[in-house]
């Protein structure tokens, strides 16, 4: 058993070095493809920070002063619920100060100055309002009405705050996703071709192996390992690229004025680690799949 | 050991390589397949080691129906067969020792078995002391001996030889034939395709003669004619 494993790795390494040009091309392509996949994840997550408070069809947020009395809060609640044809009372959600503070931590993740000014005590609590009506003018007129209620600090409308960002985020996500998928297919093709070349170069050896009774798996495994290595190395390279990209972005965003929203567009490092692991897994998978297909198809060289 | 029952093999739709061939080869036999180029000798060998599948008929090897065997069993069938070719099929970047060891390595034999068996078989074929040569540093006859060592190192039941003396001068060919006869004496069944009159006439073994894919003669202790 050990002899077989040692054999497989030895053969993989020999073949890997023999075909350097093709190997480098395959690795680079998978690296770029995976970098795009990772970037898609990060962009997605960054925009999510910004959009977190508008999740779940929320169109309007009523911010309640931190010093509002329980009576005032209950009045606001009733007022909102009093328009059941316009507002979905079922989905109306109240975030108290603690919950609002948790949310703020995400929104202001790249803006520590603003965050440090907030405490669970002085933060406004909020009503998240999901309208039933499709008419934005109705929602807008309601917001004017709520603004005049006692205890209300401000009313924010999704239309004003995030429609542009949301559209932009969807567009960017689609573009990067499509590009990364296309590049992944190219990467599979290149790995496939590299393996095919490697097998062609060793067709005499493969012929002899088959004649003396080596099993197809025994012949295939080194080639599959080689493809796996291509994918993994591509994954490692793209992880490096992703880290550099994210650091540069985080530094750049830190220079923006607080409160512009741009400063929310950063990604926590734990999330980055997760994305890197996913990328390594995808890389290994792409390499193994590409080479497995090639190794099976060209076993009869 | 080897039995063919009404085997027909065609390449494409026109060319008939073997037509309705039947014969029975007992364990320990030494058989020549003779006939001009393209008469179907090589195809018969390729049917026996299942490099080819017949269109009709059955091929039996060591009690197993080779055509109905699952693809995954074929490697184990081949471990019972040694193959020798006119062009040796040695791996040019491996030494004599490595070429022979390769056959054991790829069927998963551990190192200590390889280190014990390879020198024994190299001694048998008369190549002791040349373990570290590369194939290009050997004569044709020596290269063929390496290929016979590789085919025999796993002690197969059957040895299939396709024109093993085809590239060699008569004296060297005689040496190779003596070696195959010695292997045959250990109980290994030898089937050899050839169109070398001298070899066949000198050995006086069983001769199966083919003409355009048809067996026209099957004779004990025959000559080439």
UniProtKB/TrEMBL annotation, chain A:
Main localisation: membrane
Keywords linked to the UniProt accession: Cell cycle, Cell division, Cell membrane, Membrane, Transmembrane, Transmembrane helix
Pfam families: FtsX, FtsX_ECD
Protein's cellular compartments: Cell membrane
InterPro entries: ABC3_permease_C, FtsX, FtsX_ECD
Domain FtsX extracellular: 58-155
Membrane topology: Multi-pass membrane protein
GO biological processes: cell division
GO cellular component: plasma membrane
Record flagged with keyword Cell cycle: yes
Transmembrane segments: 20-43, 171-195, 228-249, 269-295
Domain ABC3 transporter permease C-terminal: 178-296
Family classification: Belongs to the ABC-4 integral membrane protein family. FtsX subfamily.
PANTHER family: CELL DIVISION PROTEIN FTSX
Name of the featured protein: Cell division protein FtsX
Organism: freshwater metagenome
UniProtKB/TrEMBL annotation, chain B:
Keyword Cell membrane found: yes
Cellular compartments annotated: Cell membrane
Keywords, comma-separated and alphabetical: ATP-binding, Cell cycle, Cell division, Cell membrane, Membrane, Nucleotide-binding
InterPro entries: AAA+_ATPase, ABC_transporter-like_ATP-bd, ABC_transporter-like_CS, ABC_transpr_LolD-like, Cell_div_FtsE, P-loop_NTPase
GO biological process: cell division
Domain ABC transporter residue range list: 2-225
Keyword Transmembrane helix set for record: no
GO annotations of cellular component type: plasma membrane
GO MF annotations, alphabetized: ATP binding; ATP hydrolysis activity; transmembrane transporter activity
Membrane topology summary: Peripheral membrane protein
Entry's family note: Belongs to the ABC transporter superfamily.
Listed PANTHER family: CELL DIVISION ATP-BINDING PROTEIN FTSE, IMPORT ATP-BINDING PROTEIN
Name the record gives this protein: Cell division ATP-binding protein FtsE
Organism: freshwater metagenome
């Amino acid at each position: 058993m050990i002899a077989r494993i040692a054999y497989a790795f030895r053969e993989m390494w020999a073949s890997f070095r023999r075909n350097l040009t093709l190997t480098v091309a395959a690795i680079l392509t998978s690296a770029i493809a995976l970098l795009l996949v990772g970037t898609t994840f990060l962009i997605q997550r960054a925009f999510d920070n910004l959009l977190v408070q508008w999740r779940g069809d929320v169109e309007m947020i009523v911010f309640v002063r931190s010093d509002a009395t329980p009576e005032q809060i209950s009045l606001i609640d009733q007022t909102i619920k009093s328009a059941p044809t316009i507002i979905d009372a079922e989905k109306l959600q109240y975030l108290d100060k603690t919950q609002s503070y948790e949310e703020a931590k995400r929104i202001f993740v790249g803006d520590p100055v603003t965050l440090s000014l907030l405490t669970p005590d002085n933060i406004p609590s909020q009503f998240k309002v999901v309208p039933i009506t499709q008419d934005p003018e109705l929602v807008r007129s309601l917001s004017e009405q709520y603004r005049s209620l006692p205890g209300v600090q401000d009313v924010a409308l999704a239309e004003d705050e995030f429609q542009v960002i949301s559209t932009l985020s969807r567009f960017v996500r689609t573009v990067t996703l499509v590009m990364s998928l296309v590049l992944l297919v190219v990467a599979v093709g290149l790995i496939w071709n590299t393996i095919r070349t490697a097998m062609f170069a060793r067709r005499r050896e493969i012929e002899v192996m088959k004649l003396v009774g080596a099993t197809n798996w025994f012949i295939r495994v080194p080639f599959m390992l080689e493809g796996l290595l291509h994918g993994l190395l591509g994954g490692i390279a793209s992880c490096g690229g992703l880290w550099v990209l994210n650091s540069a972005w985080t530094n750049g965003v830190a220079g923006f004025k607080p409160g512009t929203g741009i400063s929310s567009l950063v990604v926590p490092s734990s999330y980055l680690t997760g994305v890197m692991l996913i990328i390594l897994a995808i890389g290994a998978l792409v390499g193994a799949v590409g080479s497995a297909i090639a190794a099976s198809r060209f076993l009869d060289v | 050991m080897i039995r063919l029952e009404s085997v027909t093999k065609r390449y494409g739709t026109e060319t008939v390589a073997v037509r309705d061939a039947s014969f029975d080869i007992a364990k320990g036999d030494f058989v020549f397949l003779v006939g001009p180029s393209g008469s179907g000798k090589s195809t018969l060998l390729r049917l026996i080691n299942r490099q080819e599948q017949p269109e009709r008929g059955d091929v039996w090897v060591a009690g197993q129906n080779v055509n109905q065997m699952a693809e995954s069993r074929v490697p184990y069938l081949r471990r019972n067969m040694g193959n020798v070719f006119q062009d040796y099929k040695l791996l040019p970047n491996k030494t004599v020792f490595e070429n022979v060891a390769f056959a054991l390595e790829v069927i998963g034999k551990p190192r200590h078995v390889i280190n014990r068996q390879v020198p024994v078989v190299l001694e048998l074929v008369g190549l002791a002391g040349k373990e570290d040569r590369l194939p290009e540093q050997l004569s044709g006859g020596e290269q063929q001996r390496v290929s016979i060592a590789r085919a025999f190192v796993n002690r197969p039941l059957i040895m299939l030889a396709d024109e093993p003396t085809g590239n060699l001068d008569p004296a060297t060919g005689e040496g190779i034939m003596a070696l195959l006869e010695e292997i045959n004496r250990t109980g290994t069944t030898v089937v050899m395709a050839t169109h070398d009159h001298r070899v066949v006439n000198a050995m006086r073994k069983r001769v199966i003669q083919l003409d355009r894919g048809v067996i026209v003669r099957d004779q004990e202790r025959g000559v080439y004619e």
